[in-house]
UniProtKB/TrEMBL annotation:
This is Bifunctional isochorismate lyase/aryl carrier protein. It comes from Mumia flava. InterPro entries: ACP-like_sf (IPR036736), Isochorismatase (IPR016291), Isochorismatase-like_dom (IPR000868), Isochorismatase-like_hydrls (IPR050272), Isochorismatase-like_sf (IPR036380). The lineage of its organism: Bacteria, Bacillati, Actinomycetota, Actinomycetes, Propionibacteriales. Keywords: Hydrolase, Lyase. GO terms for molecular function: isochorismatase activity; lyase activity.
Length: 293
């Protein structure tokens, strides 16, 4: 059996429940971009929401990690592996990835930069037959932030192995794609229940980004628009929460975006309404490169 064809799905609403109290720390973590090679990504239909969201959020994580000095590691399987090297993978998935760069290359949007590690990977887990654990420890780190594909296979296996090696795994729910919504959800539930912490890209970016004047500005503006100073501060402190669930209506949302535009940060209302989080706004602010409000 080979890879599925034309995968297209929208992820389920978040339902995971973390059992572990860990917090992502920029001084302790490594970002792992898992298996984002063209051979593996070609299974996704062009309109697959889960995949396009995963690529976009992986790019956000890469940007945040690089800004924070968090080491970045990629996994990539070698092309044209002989049968003895593939072992039991050949029984399950056939001959696997070919040698053509159109199959082996990391997708362009997430391409490694000079100096970033591309780890040759042979099995589901990024730790199997590699020196990933040694690299993490040599960097003085003990946390692994994982994004990429496929959730219920390599990402779940990597997170489980990290836990067994006393490296705390974190998985970005919206920076992962899989064969189906059910597989995607199953992978997140497995990690949250047994071995790691599931979070959103906005949560990770917030953890890797030191508090800034923009945090204070956004907390103050939201507090004013909601007529509740504490609510504004809470929304910035928990960047994955929806400002609309907290009571912000569309009229006041437009007022907020107009203020941001006046300061040099252009945010499309539809994009904001889709995400609805302060993490989304802070990421757009960081991308705009406007130093202070």
């Amino acid at each position: 059996m080979t890879l599925p064809q034309t995968v297209s799905y929208t992820p389920d609403e978040p339902t995971w429940s973390n059992r572990l109290p860990w917090r992502l720390d920029p001084a302790r973590s490594v970002l792992l971009v898992h298996d984002m090679q063209r051979y593996f990504t070609r299974v996704f239909a062009p309109d697959c929401v889960a995949y396009t969201d995963a690529v976009r959020h992986c790019a956000v994580l890469l940007d945040a990690a690089r800004r924070a000095g968090v080491p970045v590691v990629y996994t990539a399987q070698p092309g044209d592996q002989p049968a003895h090297a593939r072992g039991l993978l050949a029984d399950r998935w056939g001959p696997g990835i070919g040698a053509d760069p159109d199959q082996t290359d990391i997708v362009t949007a997430l391409a490694p930069r000079p100096g970033e590690t591309v780890l040759t990977k042979h099995r589901y887990s990024a730790f199997a037959r590699t020196d990933l654990a040694e690299r993490v420890r040599a960097a003085g780190r003990d946390q692994l932030m994982v994004c990429g594909i496929y959730g219920h296979i390599g990402i779940a296996a990597t997170a489980t192995d990290a836990f067994m090696l006393d490296i705390a795994p974190f998985v970005a729910a919206d920076a992962v794609a899989d064969f189906s919504a059910a597989d995607h959800t199953r992978a997140l539930h497995h990690v949250a229940a047994t071995c790691g912490v599931v979070l959103t890209t906005a949560d990770a970016v917030s953890a890797w980004t030191p508090p800034s004047a923009w945090d204070d500005w956004l907390a103050t503006r939201l507090g004013r628009l909601l007529d509740d100073e504490a609510a504004g501060a809470a929304l910035v402190a928990e960047p994955s929460r929806s400002v609309f669930d907290a009571g912000l209506d569309s009229v006041r949302a437009f007022d907020l975006l107009d203020e941001l535009a006046d300061l040099g940060v252009d945010v499309d209302f539809v994009d904001f309404a889709t995400s609805g989080s302060t993490g989304f706004l802070l990421t757009r602010i960081a991308r705009a490169g406007v130093a202070t409000p």
